[in-house]
Amino acid sequence: MQKYSIFNLVKNAFSNHENWDLAWKDPTPKEEYDVVIIGGGGHGLATAYYLAKEHKITKVAIIEKGWIGGGNVGRNTTIIRSNYMHDENGLFSEFGMDLWRKMSQDLNYNVMFSPRGIINLAHSDAQMNAYARRGNSMRLNGIDAVLLNREQVKEIIPMADFSENVRFPIFGGLMQPSAGTARHDAVAWGYARQADSMGVDIIQNCEVIGFDVSAGKINGIRTSRGNIKAKKVGLCVAGSTNILAEKLNMTLPIETHLLQACVSEPVKPVLDNVVTFGAGHFYVSQSDKGEMVMGGDLDGYNSYAQRGNLPTLQHVLTEGIAMMPFLSKLKMLRTWGGIMDMSMDGSPIIDKTHIEGLYLNCGWCYGGFKATPASGWTFAHTIAQDRVHELNAGYGLNRFSTGHLIDEKGLGTKTWIS
Amino acid sequence: MLYIKCPHCGMRPQTEFSYGGDASVKRPELNKDISDQEWDDFVYNRKSLRGKHLELWQHISGCRQWIKVERDTSTHEIFRTFRADEEVA
Fold first, then answer.
1. Residues A302 and B73 sit within 8 Å (Cβ to Cβ)
2. Residues in CB range of B30: below 8 A, 6 or more apart
């Protein structure tokens, strides 16, 4: 593989940049693989990369119905954080933060990781107490957390509404300074390029139409481009998890819902951090191009549509304007939607299944993008070793029947309520 | 904007309704032995169908009645609506 470097950049300049290698090949599916990963999104590509890099398993195929990076890894709001209270989520995400920090060097691909900090705003004394508790839990797990009072928040984000007579006055906030954003597409492309260079077959425009299971063991998959034998199969298909689970006669604690995001027209730098509204569900950051990147609630009904409805967008942006009134002056540039695999406790599932050789990675709810490296790393471990790693031991599929839920969000079973 | 025909009030915008999830989920019967698996299925496990989906909505800013709605989860088209106590074939 051609290394991306200043020397190669100069060298290729002499041939008008016409002789660069393709970043990844377009192979025809082989008859058999050691591991087949279904889903060429961030998590699937990362899984294949870590299978090859950490476990030296390179007879791997990624099967993608559309094109790689065309689902949620290309549709998210690029936020990376580990500001969780519970150990399972905190330790898992902080492990991921380490991978994020090294990612550009590791992948030889600039993922533009920008640790600009995230601030969750608090709008009452009770919320400040809850944030103090969460911040303390984070620090016990080695995650940076700073509790900010009103004046400190005002210094960082003076454009927020600090007037006295607002419905939700800003009392303070919880900040994770090491959190940030990254270029989402680059993450998918960087993993794809490295995985491809280590021998992974990235097979696009190939739909999985069935599974070959006998005597409780997976033998392969049936696809629109023929049957593929596989010793192990990993599912990494986010919002499409239930569609594939149905083909396996599995019913999962997952519902697929629609989540929208939007960007404004680009403006001069105004917001340095990621900021979330504490009295509702709204978050905003500013992209390198200057667009305000915003998102919030689910549309609130089961959907596979990948396109949203205006009432939810209006509701979300009303919260945004309550938090930062200047947003009302901006024109909207784009809105879009993606389909989320909403789990019943708001936390993901990375586990083996009752079918030997079949592994499950789903339930990412609102937070799939930031989990990409940690999810790929632990899922690769789970597949390669046929046992879960201690980092994803809490993300078992059977935690719902045994009652070991990770109640980070306190949602209950109404996944669409936030 | 979705428009939902409430069987009691007629056609109304989606903002008057709140969602109640899969209407095909049945609570295990009382006074019977119920396995953990049955409880698990009732409380957590969902088919989350792509295509026709029978679901509960409540006309919360209208007559406040629960209703059933048959809707396509990939196109958002609404086919039929029913009273909550109607059996849907």
1. yes
2. none
pLDDT at A192 over 70: yes
Q: For residue A204, which of A67, A312, A56 has the smallest C-alpha distance? A: A67
Specify the number of domains making up chain B. Answer: 1
Chain B nearest CA to A256, separation (Å): 6
Residue B60 lies in a domain: yes
Whether A3 has a pLDDT exceeding 80, the answer reads yes
d(CA A21, CA A395): 39
Q: Are residues A253 and B44, on separate chains, in Cβ contact within 8 Å?
A: yes
Question: Distance (Å, rounded) from C-alpha B8 to C-alpha B14?
Answer: 15
The Cα–Cα gap between A189 and A23 comes to: 8
Q: Per-residue pLDDT for A324 more than 80?
A: yes
What ipTM was estimated for this complex? Answer: 0.96
| Collapsed DSSP state (helix, strand, coil) of residue A163 | coil
Q: Which of A254, A305, A311 sits opposite B75 (nearest CB)?
A: A305
A209 in B contact zone (CB under 8 Å): no
- CATH number for the domain harbouring residue B8: 3.30.2270.10
Give me the domain span that covers residue B61. Answer: 1-25+45-89
Structure tokens at B70: 């048959």
* C-alpha span between B83 and A66 (Å, rounded): 40
What is the DSSP code string of A111-136? ---B---EEEEE-SHHHHHHHHHHHH
On whether residue B56 sits in a domain, the answer given is: yes
Q: Does B61 touch chain A (CB under 8 A)?
A: no
- Paired residues of B66 in beta bridges: B58
Q: Which of A82, A71, A61 is nearest to A341 (CA)?
A: A71
pLDDT tens digits, A161-175: 999 889 999 999 999
Q: What is the pLDDT of residues A68-83, one digit of tens each?
A: 999 999 999 999 999 9
Number of C-beta neighbours around residue A247 at 10 A:
14
Q: Report the DSSP pairing between strands A332-343 and A180-181.
A: unpaired
Alpha carbons A362 and A349: distance in angstroms, whole number: 5
Residues of B in contact with A309 (CB under 8 A): 1-2, 14, 76
Percent of chain B past pLDDT 90, that is, above it, reads 91
Q: Is the pLDDT of residue B23 over 90?
A: yes
Report how far residue A281's alpha carbon sits from residue A146's, in angstroms, rounded to the nearest whole number. 21
Is residue B35, in this structure, part of any structural domain at all? no
Q: B70 touching A, CB under 8 A?
A: no
Interchain contact, B73 vs A309, CB within 8 Å: no
The answer to whether residue B14 sits within a structural domain is yes
Q: Torsion over CA of A164, A166, A169 and A170, rounded to 10 degrees?
A: -90
Contact A170, A122 (CB under 8 A): yes
Q: Is the pLDDT of residue A417 over 90?
A: no
Distance from CA of B68 to the nearest CA of A (A): 13
